[in-house]
Protein 1
Amino acid sequence: MTEDKSTMTPQQFIDELRRYQKGSVSRRHFLGVTGLGLATAVLGGAMPGLRPRKAHAALSGTLNFTTWPNYFSQENFDNFTKNTGVKINVSIFGSNEEMLAKLQAGSTGWDVFVPTNYTISTYKELDLVEPLDLKLMPNYDPAAQDPRFLGPGTIDGVTYAVPKDWGTTGFVVNTKNAPQNPASWKEFFDLAQGDLKGRVMVHDYQLTTIGSALKYFGYSFNSIDEKEMADAEKLLLAVKPNLFGIDSNYQPSMRNGDAWMSMCWTNDAAQLHRDIPEMMFVLGKEGGEIWTDHYAIPKGAPNREAAYAFLDYILTPEINAKEVLAHGAPSTDSRTNKLLPKEMLENPILYPAAESLSTLEFGAAATLTSPLRAEVMARFKAA
Amino acid sequence: MSDRQHSRSVTALLLAPAGVFFFFLLILPMIVVLVYSFGERAEAGGYAPAFTFDNYLNLPARSKAFINTLTLAPLGTLLTALFAYPMAYFLAVKVSPRWRVTMLVLVMAPFWTSQLLRYYAWILILGAKGIPSWLAWIGIDDVRIINTPLAVLIGAVYGFLPLMVPPIYVSLEKLDKRLLEASADLGATPWRSFLQVTLPLSLPGVATGSMLVFILLMGDYILPQFLGGGKVYFIGNALVDLFLQSRNWPFGAAVSIALVIIMFVTIFFYMRFVLGKSGQRRVAMV
């Protein structure tokens, strides 16, 4: 093969992207050297749907975006606003149950939200989400998605949500303060009542908090069996007085040194480990959760056009790669993965070994609406 | 139309906006809450019509939240009053009138930034790198403040001081200085004058301020959420969880009704005793 200066490897691309993100090079340099500027101009001219100014001329107002803590690239959002004139108003939630409650109550004013795999069938049943018109988001390519994660968003052949990224639920340990080296949920909950008294956090979220307590006993993460739930509740009530806190936004407390161990999602673990190397991510050896978050548009979204424009923008591989670099949850899109640096694709936090994945379970829809799950969580918090 | 009839219709006309407001935004919603409290949780969450007392029978499941709120809210109010009184006294009696307005404005200044932002700041002040690390420096190790009831009390005093100071200030400011002169002429020490003249006459201000702070603390959920970190649980948090997580609206409605009744009874007796007493005292003093 001849050396062609006009092409670049994904690695080179990411290096340039990093330089641009850090502000070492200008946007013009970045677009020029990567060929993206030219490509965009050509593509933009050739594809009517992508012609930025004209297509976005109709857009205005605000896009209300509802998501999880520490879960997007501000730079991407700023650029969307710059290109379209649509301001993005971000709301942060701590649990899918909270999102469902708001949507059930009605009039949320949300345009795009980020539901997790196990909730989508319920949203569809309750008629709370809009079937997506994929023609309005040409940058999304179902064929490029990892087929493992395509199931939950598509119901009876209709797409209600598109995968954003995936990850696992384990726990993060500050190994400098907590050298005990726990490897299982059993050790997690035992340490929380023992050596790490007052230093451990759990999520303010029934699925993971109850699910992980169920794993302590070796039960299914998704159990709604009364006897098994009673065991989990007993464990949680015993642990409660010894916890540092119950919060799904645990990064501030972990960074501040108040908490030394916390239930943790892939993306938070990646961010914490990146900034503080002694923060280690552990998948409980009994198992736990594997999840896929999705983008969806609620029924009656006030700024539907902007919502589609946003989905189309954010699912563009180059933009999506910047999202992944910012939040650290692995993408479901193979086109995006090609743009990511090798060390990221080899990071065991993001891509755990296949054998540790095999014990993990996807959340089950029944846990979302189970009154028992809801009441056990509420009793645990009120104890 | 007689003058009397005329004045009556004017009164009715002037009260109409408030009446409509209270009917639609207070009484009607309370009726809805009451009706819901006898219902059942719908299958996917929410409300399903029914007539059951189960929600009220289940109230003991939230007893810890009621106990927490009913101890920490009065305690927080008391502490706030103890901090506010000297401040208000200083402003009303010691500070020259020229500086009074400026200083009153400074008392209110924290209200100009978001409450959430201020509580976030307290998370850092009370967290491991804040006060505990200074204490460790002088040899007092392993002090935990954040996510304890103490943190919530500190937040309450800080957050509600600006609401407590002005009413006390007003009652102290309009205090007739001649009463103090008379008290001194009759041989009372300054301390005795304070206890028997100033304090009783300023009690209505203390009562008003305390009422404001107490009502807000009883229904608060942000303060315990931020500085209690899920470990100090108020009725407000129980309500948020019931409506926004468990989606058990009927039980949430029953908890609300219980809270309203507790508030009503507490405030009724508080008004009777504190306000009633100080009113009588005032007459007796003069």
Protein 2
Amino acid sequence: MNPWTKRLCLLLVLVVVSAVLFAYLPAVHVAETSDSDEVLVFLEEVVRIDVAKYDVTLLGTSVTHPDWLAGLAQVTGKYSLESETSKLDVLFKFRNGTLYWCLMRVVEGSPHYLDVPSGNIRDLADGFLQNYQDYSGDSELGSMRNMLDVVDASENSTATVDNLKLTVSVTSFSSSFDWRCTLDGTDCGGVDISFHNGHFYAFGDDRSYYPMITQ
Amino acid sequence: MKKTVALTFCVLLLLAVVFSILILSMDDEAGSHGDAQNGDSAFIIWGTLDYADETYMGGEPERNASRDICDAIHSLVFDTQQYDYCKNFWGNDTQPDQVYGNVSYCEENYNFTAIFYKGHSIGAYCDVEGCMFGEHWTLYAAEGYKHEYIMDYLIHDRISSGTHDFVFLWTCGYGAEDMIGDIDENGHSVGMMASWMNTTDLEADGYASPDGSNQCFIGFDGYSIFFITQTGYGGFDYGDFAALFFEYAMIDGWTVNDALDAAAEETHWQSSFGDCQLYTGYLMPDPHGSGQYVTCYMRVWGDGNLKLRRGE
């Protein structure tokens, strides 16, 4: 093989390799991957799921820029966590890179936890908020935790302290805790968590990105 | 020499880009959602034009919202290219014969059909000899009240392969336990769920306890909530909820339950469908009792784990 033929072959190999790399480059969404990894951190540090015991699969995601977020990105997605004895589906949403919604559906078996969860619904809510406070470093969550002492978590009840209102709703499906803050009579977002069959079910925190639509 | 190297590099880059495009276009033709996987499915929207009564139908604003939301749902479903036959027949095209004809067509040609209807319900009687059901349950066609209605048993008469696996009726009553209907030994049916889906055996709470049937029926128990009714959160209304439901249902790997949760979270104070008032109950004015209100629900029958994005 003469030197020119060698160079030509090398060039062709480089072209093919480069083409394949270019073709699959768009499939890697760096921001999306780092966002969704944060969900697993949240599951471990806040919900206290032993993520290491599961095979984790990231399913469909979408990125939108809804009007009510004034053009900010919203990333929505779903994880499937599967072990031999337990299967969980986890939905999530990020707004502008911040995880603000997470829902965990127990599909099969019982979740693998890092700590045994309390059987008491008030303690479940308190533990969740404490973990969320440690995770986020948000001191405002301390006043939300304190409000758990002034409501009966086993039945529908409400309590208001300063500009914060806690509503407890108990239905046949779930027990939920909803903290809302108001400023001069205007809602400015809040935190809500719910539990289904003694397990964490859903969490939302829209204080940073409360929808901007006005009625 | 430097020029030769630069030129070679440019040619290499150009060839790589051209080959990349060729590889990607080959992927699109026979990729993970190729014909064999996303084929054979239909999505149809129906809806009446009759919103004459302002108190109980919502009037002109509800009619306009129904048109716009059905347009939006059709566009976003169509854009996913997941359905071979994707039609929005809202309005004048919602004629009884056209509904029956499409039921036959979809049963004969598609492995999966999803239906969304927006409108109203009314009772009527059939002339089938030996019918023991008494009153039948119908849907308003385009022209609405006192015109020909879409009859339950005439839908069922067109069912052959039993592939209408997702039916979402945004209309009053047909999600209630006592209105799911029945099918007699002669195949004569009453009720929308029984007629569209050829079954009365679906789990009553397919959200909390999906039954694995691969069939899902969503309807209202009591009065359906208007699209223009505000959810009370961030300026959203129930038209937004409906559109977002279909948007999320079209994400790869997402189920009906997932889409209900994500749509409810975005449009309500609560973070899941199970916590929001569609599931826990909302109040609507009762046309039969002056000034009275009744508690109504959105009911999910059957398999909340059904996926509307086909091919999985």
